[in-house]
């Protein structure tokens, strides 16, 4: 790969040779572990989030995803339960020993989300919300930085540079598909970026095949492909009743599909000489 | 044009037949007037902004654009003078009787920017920053809503719907180019969207050919084309020393180029049976 | 505009300073004239093509467009009347004193199409069909070279270079929209390319707002915009019964819309200090 | 996946449930076999093609790729050895017991290329060259149909439908990357399309990570990802002296990289419960 002068520094392999590994209470992201973050698109009500969380914890999944504040294209769509959603996620996660991954939509909400989340997510629409990135650079929890839907690799790494340069080195990149002319899939999941990021940066990178494809049948094969290409983990949407989901139903997995996904993710991780943190016989020791 | 059910309502022609015209202290946007908003990409220092503002006011330009808070791809690039920049713009604009158009990058800054600006601009990276849109829906000053660089027409109109549905009907749309595979121009200025917006919505729409093309030689022809296609105005970058500009130099007009642009904008407006607010012999009376 | 080394030569302004003007029996393309090429998407039957041709000739239009060999996405769609279509077009055009512009889809057909056409069109899907370009570089009739739907400016000029370097200097470029993520219009008409082509090349360039937008209501405003941006002409689809057209009905103009278009094209040409060849009081003398 | 009415028929799973398997003299494409097609971008001279072919045959590779007629963006670039290239490829392939895969650029050349090739390739620029597709529908050799660089899945399947509807059922689809805004890679390899094609069509589909990424370091991880996602094979560029290649050097593998690729492709195939035809201990029996 060409060796031209890079506009970023702290995120680069030249700056730090070894992979960044991010430690959480109950798992790690990066290094030998291939993580699996799962949950509904949005927290909808107590029953829904507890049911899903219980299911996931029985499967030994460590990280629960779910939206409390939802960025929706239309002002008339369901906007999330907001603070109530955060509280419900936290309660469910605490009951079942899981960590919480949830989106923070703006600077004003950083304190509130910080209180309930273990990992704060920056959504695709906010990847270049530089005030938000600066605010997140000042906290001590990990940031999951989704790629902007029309962001180049360089812009993405520079967005991460905003966070690192402010003092927070715990950044997890997340490829979630880019916007192209193709409409057969919701976005075009750009898996080539994964080995390229691995070559250019020490940061962990995961993939979101639910957002990336928008079609639940494609989630498992694309998860496998992402891991084999070098991804440090997968983030997927799962729902107890996908057909009744308030958002993103068509890309949410049914419970039985999720069990199948887990098996394939674990096999793919082992194929790539890595392990998963949910395996009963995991080779990982924390 | 097809008559399928639209997901937006308040911004639509069905909701309001007549064009929305936005009144400011010294001019109007929409209606018979084709406005010309001009100024530097960023406020750099007192001398720069006063020099440019004086030049523009002598040309009878009513609205000064300029960035105080700048969203920059790299954390190491000039980030704007921030509040100092706002103060300088306000002072210059007041001295020369102009209005101020400047970007507000997040909810936290709405109060501050509101204090100094006559029109608050939402940049392309924030078009889907829904918290910001909601905050701007509660103020009584006009909002210049730039199209997201990868936003569809529908997403853009829905972003405007966020502002109108919160109570602020003073929204000006601004086409500033979309991101495509073509790299000969900085963005692809999508002029077809102008008559399409005019058919679907009552809101005024202007074009930004500086951002749209990234090449100063293209600014005048594309301004003319935009007006002839129905745009309610043009927003351009002009600088006293483009070659020394701290940002966007290659797309900033020289003063003499700006004078030529004005002439062509006025002719194009008249060609389209409209007038400009800067003309000595303007047919507009305020 | 930057002065980097160009990969093309014969098509460049550096190679030839003055505009290339292409002479036909009854008109010219380039120079002072803004041409208007019109006709149906496809020749469908004798009645249709003679009716349209008669209408256009009464309006003093000089060039009839129409597809005989049609590149269709599906093998089950109407594929054109082929040679019969060419013959019908030629007969209609001869009866009414017009020139014929029609697409040639491959090398094998160059001789046949050459026999009936005055201008041979290369479609968007064939812009990089280099065998075809080479074959067309050996004939003495003008070539209308449409931009590939995902071609950069440089690739397009290099496609023209294929034709010029083989000996045929009569190339007319035609911007017909590029493929982007936006689906509100059929393609994204890239008008910025027009003044850019004019700066970089001596070749005439026209625009096709029918293909470019896919919506008949947008054809007139985008024609005006293209001419004001510097286009040397417009190519549009018109049909006696658009709602019954075998292809591209929604973007075909009705006869009365076409009359309105003509007026606006002429006004736009005059606005840009140019003339149209169909005007009764044309300033052009052939 | 949604069940809307498809515009194609013969290529669909509804039409034919079982996978199409294409038999060649020395191997098969589709079914249990994951094929590996390899060779230089272009045949450059006798020494080059014989050296590469000998290397590949020693590795037990069954299919040699190489361009004799090359579609080049510039008329001044190396255009391929043409018929001499075909002859050299055939001689090398015959000497070492391999099959030949090479591009046919137009109808006129179908007979000539047919004479020397075992599989005729349609390049990305010709995916919608319908005359060529029709000509290829009348021959009895397999067609490798590359996806157009801006073609949707539906357009691609309809291009295949052209070939099947004319009578040739031996079509192999090849995903080679689409054109997007991202310039970090040469194209954006769209791997999600692979499981989607598998669901919608019975045709075999392979991936070309050399064209898809343009960066040799990405070829192996993307080959692995493609196979795990369900691809029936991989097509890669390999060269004895990549740094001296007349075209596509940066994406061509060195011989030692190719050996590593083979190992990873075989492991990936086995991981997906499939086999490779080059393995000494292949589970495939022909």
Walk me through the structure.
4 copies of one chain form a homotetramer. With 286 residues, the first copy, chain A, is an alpha/beta fold. Chain A has a single domain, classed as TIM Barrel (Alpha-Beta Barrel). Chain A is 33% helix and 15% strand. Chain A contains 9 helices and 11 strands. In chain A, the strands form 2 sheets. In chain A, strands 3, 4, 5, 6, 7, 8, 9, 10 and 11 form a 9-stranded parallel beta sheet that branches. A two-stranded antiparallel ribbon of chain A has the order 1-2. In chain A, helix 1 runs parallel beside helix 2 and helix 8 runs parallel beside helix 9. The longest helix of chain A is centred in the C-terminal third of the chain and has 17 residues. Chain A is globular, with a radius of gyration of 17 Å. Chain A starts with 21 loop residues before the first strand and ends in a 10-residue tail after the last strand. The C terminus of chain A is likely disordered. Chains in contact: A-B, A-C, A-D, B-C, B-D, C-D.
């Amino acid at each position: 790969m060409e060796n031209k002068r890079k506009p970023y520094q702290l995120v680069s392999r030249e700056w730090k040779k070894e992979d960044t590994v991010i430690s959480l209470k109950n798992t790690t992201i990066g290094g030998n572990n291939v993580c699996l973050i799962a949950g509904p698109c949005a927290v909808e009500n107590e029953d829904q989030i507890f049911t899903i969380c219980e299911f996931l914890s029985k499967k030994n999944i460590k990280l629960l995803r779910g939206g409390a504040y939802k960025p929706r294209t239309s002002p008339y769509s369901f906007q999330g339960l907001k603070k109530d959603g955060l509280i419900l996620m936290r309660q469910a996660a605490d009951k079942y020993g899981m960590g919480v991954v949830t989106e923070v939509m703006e600077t004003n909400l950083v304190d509130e989300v910080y209180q309930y989340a273990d990992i704060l997510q920056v959504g695709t629409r906010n990847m270049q919300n530089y005030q938000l990135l600066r605010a997140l650079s000042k906290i001590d929890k990990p940031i999951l930085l989704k790629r902007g839907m029309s962001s180049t690799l360089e812009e993405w790494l520079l967005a991460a540079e905003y966070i690192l340069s402010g003092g927070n080195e715990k950044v997890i990149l997340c490829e979630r598909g880019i916007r192209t002319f193709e409409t057969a899939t919701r976005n075009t999941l750009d898996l080539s970026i994964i080995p390229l990021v691995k070559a250019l940066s020490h940061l962990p990178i995961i993939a979101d095949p639910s957002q990336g494809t928008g079609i639940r049948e494609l989630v498992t094969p694309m998860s496998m492909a992402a891991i084999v290409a070098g991804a440090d983990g997968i983030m997927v949407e799962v729902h107890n009743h996908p057909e009744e989901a308030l958002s993103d139903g068509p890309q949410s997995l049914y419970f039985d599909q999720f069990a199948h996904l887990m098996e394939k993710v674990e096999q793919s991780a082992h194929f790539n000489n890595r392990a998963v943190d949910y395996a009963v016989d995991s080779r990982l020791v924390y």
